[in-house]
Amino acid sequence: MESAQKFIAIVPAAGVGKRMQANFPKQYLRINDETILHHTVMKLLSHPLINQVIIALSPDDEYFAESQLAHHKNIIRVSGGTERVNSVLNGLKVVDGNEYPWVLVHDAARPCVSHEDIDKLIHQCLINNHGGILATPVRDTMKRGIDAVNGLTTIEHTVEREQLWHALTPQCYKTDELTFAIEHAQKNGLKITDEASAIEEANLPSLLVSGSSENIKITHPDDLALAEFYINKQANNS
């Protein structure tokens, strides 16, 4: 993909990943002798349009300093916050909006994103002149649950899936608009789960760009084997 516009990416990586049942942050679990965080960040930096990556890490992180990433000239470390949104905002504060009018935000635990999907997202955002996210349409029947008195969850009703999408990352927005949207949400006490939700609350447009289902987020132990499979598959096809 050819473009005069260059991008910077923010990777919030201050979480502890409790669902992985590990005694250290999940981004430091290993696939093919490299950490998940290493796979993710190097996938971004190897994209021809991404010049730099900002990693938001917990101030108590004791693993990053021992990694190869700590000495990479195109990686900037910032302090992460208590929530994802705080980490992203801390990253945005060190971005020069004149040099990088657009920013990508990508989950640390999504090492399987493809360059083709990043190309598609960037292309759609640039030609439409507003931000968007990678996403996949919901294919399964969706149920809304309700907690029962015995501690079990029962079905309340079926949710129409026709216009439902799974939100993925990267999410790509204009640097100034995303900064405004997050600060607006925080000022008004709004709950923000991802960058798109901040953009929505600011009444700004946001594209849904269909991406690959291989772009999984490593959340549970079983996800590691699947991520390894996709990483190896992509390496063999490159």
List keywords for this structure.
alpha/beta, 29% helix, 7-stranded mixed sheet, Spore Coat Polysaccharide Biosynthesis Protein SpsA, Chain A, 6 helices, 238 residues
Protein architecture, described:
It contains 6 helices and 11 strands. With 238 residues, it is of the alpha/beta class. The chain has a single domain (7-237), classed as Alpha-Beta Complex (Spore Coat Polysaccharide Biosynthesis Protein SpsA, Chain A), CATH 3.90.550.10. The protein has a 7-stranded mixed sheet with strand order 5-4-1-6-10-7-11, sandwiched between helices. It has a two-stranded antiparallel sheet with strand order 2-3. The longest helix is centred in the C-terminal third of the chain and has 15 residues, at 223-237. 37% of the residues are buried.
Summarize the structure.
The protein is α/β, with parallel strands linked by helices. The protein has one domain (7-237): Alpha-Beta Complex (Spore Coat Polysaccharide Biosynthesis Protein SpsA, Chain A).
